[in-house]
Every structure is written in structure tokens, then in C-alpha cells.
Design brief:
338 residues; alpha/beta; Rossmann fold; seven-stranded parallel sheet; two-stranded antiparallel sheet; 9 strands; globular
């Protein structure tokens, strides 16, 4: 879940009021017990000691750009998450385009990486998104092997494409997932519990009429769907290298943050998270570490400039640069011979 998830949080609250939703007993459960009790009693995945499931805690490794980065042999595919896009033009040529991977594609290209950005249906099912991902790679890669870097739900699309669709003209050497909810999201569970099955069709209808987007993705992000359906049916390809990163913020998001509600709910059940995806859910394949003090939008360079400026004024320069992070991923892939 990412740039678009802020939209979900913004839409969910007004929709809840419009449909007169009430807090269900299940939803109360998210807030009723102490964080320690909730994590131990409600989440079967929570069997890691804290330091163990965080893996390497990455604090300031990507604060600044290095002078040298190696370039991988194969093109890089950037796969966006829920409600994402490659490039968005709001006013034709009158205003600059908005890029999901803000500044990242250009930075990789300047370092001689061949970069492919793909666009999939914003909130369609994983199956539909994966099919479009395959078509996008087929059209752009021209038979070359590729390395995929995927943010949030984009990692699920890529896993499904590799495991289930197996497009003949797409050869994936590696998949690097960044804050992908491989084991589902407590926040998705919370929203489904809050809305209730009897109200879901109405809310989905409102969503489709307002946005024009399909709704297949939303119930696929629940913990039950991911652990009981998706993961058992989507095994890894032994010929593909899988890497993953997670992220976490340390403090409760400010009042106006789109992550204020979601962070608290996820933290109460799953522990450290980036505002939308927990560290535990982010782990898949070779876990490279947890980015410390980084939220879900920071990962794609949609950082809050005011927050970073305020930190500098307070003598605390930012400790994360998304471009440096993505360049380091490509450097790692090059060193792995990919």
C-alpha cells in the first residue's frame, strides 16, 4: 500500500461518516488492550524478538549521495503500489508532470541505469495489475532480462506475475520489494471490520463512481487473504533472487498526517511500521534491513519538505534520501551480478 494510500485514508473517514459506520467489537479490540498484550495475543506472526525481526536497523546509511555507484547489467523496472502511476499530467503541458518515483527514475538514468516505469490499474486486483505489469515489461524490455524494484503493493503484483503468469518474454533476474505487505495489513483488516460486509458494496460503488477505479485490490490486502490464499498459491521462483526492505517511524504521526490513524492501529497489533505496512509484513526473501525514521511516502521521495526543513533548523538533518537508497539498491544488484 503509498502515494495513493494517503487518498484511501482521506476517503475512508468521510465515507465512514456518510455510511454512519459504528465501531464494531472487533475494531474496539485494536485499541482496548495494551500494545504488548495485543501483539502477543492477536498476531500469530509476532513470534520474533524485536531486534530479530527488525534485522539490520538502517539509520543514516542513505542520508547523502555517494560519489560512486555500480550499474547493474540488466534494466531496472520500477513497479508502483496501490493507487499509483508512472507519470500523472494534471494540466497537460501547463504544469509539470507528477511522478510516482519522484526524481528517482531520472537519478538512476543519470547513473547509466536503463529504467522502465510501468503503470497498472490503480486499485484493481493483483491478478489484473500483474497482467498489466507483464504487458508493460514486454513492451519496454524487448526481451531483455530485468530487475524489478517494487514499492508496496507493486511487490505483490510482481510476485504474482513471476509465479503465476510466467510471461514467456519476461525474464526476471531479481525482485526487490520495499514496504510490501507480504503478510497483509492490520489496517486493511481494520477497515474491513469497521465497514462491515453489509456496507462494503455501497462503499465500493461510491469509490467506483467518484474515482472510476475498480476495487479488487482492497480485500486482497487483508492478513487473512495474504496468509491463507495468496502466499500459499504464489511460491517463489527458484531462478529469481528475492530481496526486501521494511521501514518504521519512531513517533506518532502528527495530527494532520494521513498516517496518524493507520500507524496507531498497525503498531498496536504488529509493532513497528511506516504508517501503512509493518516491518514484519515487509519481510520476504533476503531481508536487507529496516529503514529507521522513514514513512511510506518517504520511500518514493514524497517526503514532507517542511518536516525536513524544520529538522535542519533544529540541528537534526534528515537521515534518509530516497534517491540515495534506490541508487544503493542498484549498486547492490550490480555487485550481485544482476
Amino acid at each position: 500500500m503509498e502515494a495513493g494510500k494517503a487518498v484511501i485514508v482521506a476517503v475512508a473517514v468521510p465515507a465512514r461518516r456518510m455510511l454512519n459506520l459504528k465501531i464494531t467489537p472487533t475494531a474496539r479490540r485494536y485499541f482496548g488492550a495494551s500494545p504488548t498484550c495485543r501483539r502477543q495475543s492477536l498476531d500469530p506472526r509476532n513470534n520474533f524478538a524485536p531486534k530479530e525481526y527488525l534485522g539490520k536497523e538502517i539509520v543514516d546509511d542513505y542520508a547523502i549521495l555517494r560519489d560512486q555507484y555500480e550499474t547493474p547489467e540488466n534494466p531496472i523496472v520500477l513497479a508502483h503500489g496501490l493507487l499509483g502511476f508512472a507519470e500523472l499530467k494534471l494540466a497537460g503541458s501547463f504544469l509539470p508532470s507528477i511522478h510516482y518515483w519522484h526524481g528517482i527514475k531520472d537519478a538512476l538514468s543519470r547513473r547509466n541505469c536503463e529504467v522502465i516505469t510501468t503503470t497498472v490499474p490503480p486499485s484493481s486486483s493483483v491478478e489484473q495489475r500483474a497482467a498489466e505489469l507483464a504487458r508493460g515489461i514486454e513492451a519496454r524490455a524487448q526481451g531483455k532480462s530485468v530487475n524489478i524494484i517494487a514499492h508496496s503493493m507493486g511487490g505483490l503484483d510482481a510476485r504474482y506475475m513471476i509465479s503465476q503468469l510466467k510471461p514467456a518474454s519476461v525474464r526476471v533476474k531479481s525482485l526487490v520489494t520495499v514496504a510490501t505487505p507480504h503478510h497483509g495489513s492490520t489496517f486493511a483488516d481494520y477497515l474491513m471490520d469497521e465497514i462491515g460486509p453489509e456496507r462494503l458494496p455501497s462503499l465500493y460503488n461510491i469509490w467506483e463512481r467518484i474515482t472510476g477505479f475498480e476495487t479488487g485490490a482492497f480485500n486482497q490486502l487483508t492478513k487473512r487473504y495474504m496468509t491463507e490464499d495468496f502466499n500459499p498459491k504464489t511460491p517463489d521462483d527458484p531462478e529469481v533472487r528475492y530481496f526486501s526492505y521494511g521501514a518504521m517511524v519512531h513517533e506518532k504521526p502528527p495530527l494532520l498526517s494521513p498516517f496518524r490513524l493507520s500507524h496507531g492501529i498497525i503498531h498496536g497489533i504488529e509493532g513497528p511500521n511506516d504508517g501503512l505496512v509493518s516491518v514484519q509484513s515487509s519481510r520476504w526473501g533476503t531481508y536487507k534491513g529496516t529503514l529507521s525514521g522513514v514513512n511510506h511516502l518517504d520511500l518514493i521521495n514524497w517526503s514532507n519538505r517542511f518536516r525536513f526543513t524544520l529538522q535542519r533548523w533544529m540541528g537534526r538533518p534528515p537521515t534518509f534520501n530516497a534517491i540515495a537508497f534506490c541508487l544503493d539498491i542498484t549498486d547492490m544488484l550490480a555487485k550481485e551480478g544482476l
